[in-house]
Structure of Hydrolase:
Amino acid sequence: MYTACIFDIDGTLIHTEQAVLGSLQKLLKQNYNREMSQQDLAFVLGIPGAVSLRRLGIEYVDLANKRWNDLMGEYRHTVHVYEGVRQLLTDLREQSALTGVVTSKTYQEFLDDFVPFGLVHDLTYAICADDTNLHKPHPEPLLKFLEMSGARAEESIYIGDTIYDYECARDAGVDFGLALWGCRQPDAIPAKYKFEHPSDILPLIERH
């Protein structure tokens, strides 16, 4: 049983894949005259935008990242909360579980892309990309969360959808649960738990 339940955001709490990849495709086409398939760009899911852009060999990363975020606005209609997530967060709050998010979004992206969905009042702590020097798959963001919240690694579970999330949890000494509803390659990620639906998480969380 766990006392702390920590979540990734994109692909775990909210569906953003279409928005992230569609806007990146548009950025590359409009600004760099590069055409890439969403399959070839899927590696960006789960790591900070600035890291993704550097891997694509793009200079002036801050400028490109701002343009990418602006383009994301055009795809906002495709972003939604996964079915069952709201209820799970409500149930966790009623059980007095310690909750929060560890995300590769910057704080500004967190405010723009996540806060409007109204889930934050059920999530006590948030670690964004600005809060640490190193990012997922490095364990620093999750270790920072444990330090800030007072949660114990052995009593915590991290829920995510990518290999980066798994590696971050593993190296932080935290058990990992895979959100199958947002995961592209479930067979490639050796999670301790694989959850079909958000409600499957609840039985693992200790009641207070």
